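Priority: medium. Attachment 1 of 2:
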């Protein structure tokens, strides 16, 4: 994947990170590429991220990224979440105190909630 293609993929993912439904045409206008290019990149992204596409209906068809995979503007893959849970779990067994322990607990809860939500939706 060349630099331009990587940039397009990142831009499309950035658009989808709001968790809203977008049309291919809307994404194409924002990223400044053709609808065909968006379609190609969406197909590629959907192998790694839970991107849903649908056609017609009362919502006119569109594309969206499952909100369960979005945390504070960052998209996490399943592998990243599982690794993060392991890392934070091992850190919790150390001698952190006070604010550091609170921050670690917040991270652990964020990861655990996302993993739980994904298992429930599968």
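Attachment 2 of 2:
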């Amino acid at each position: 994947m060349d630099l331009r293609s990587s940039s397009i993929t990142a831009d499309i993912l950035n658009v989808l990170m709001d968790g809203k439904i977008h049309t291919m045409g809307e994404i194409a206008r924002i990223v400044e590429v053709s609808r065909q290019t968006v379609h190609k990149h969406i197909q590629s992204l959907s192998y790694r991220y839970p991107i849903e596409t649908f056609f017609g209906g009362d919502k006119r068809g569109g594309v969206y990224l499952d909100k369960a995979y979005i945390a504070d503007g960052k998209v996490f893959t399943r592998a990243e979440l599982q690794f993060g849970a392991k890392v934070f779990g091992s850190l919790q067994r150390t001698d952190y105190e006070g604010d550091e322990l609170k921050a670690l607990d917040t991270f652990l809860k964020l990861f655990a909630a996302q993993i739980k939500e994904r298992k429930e939706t599968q």
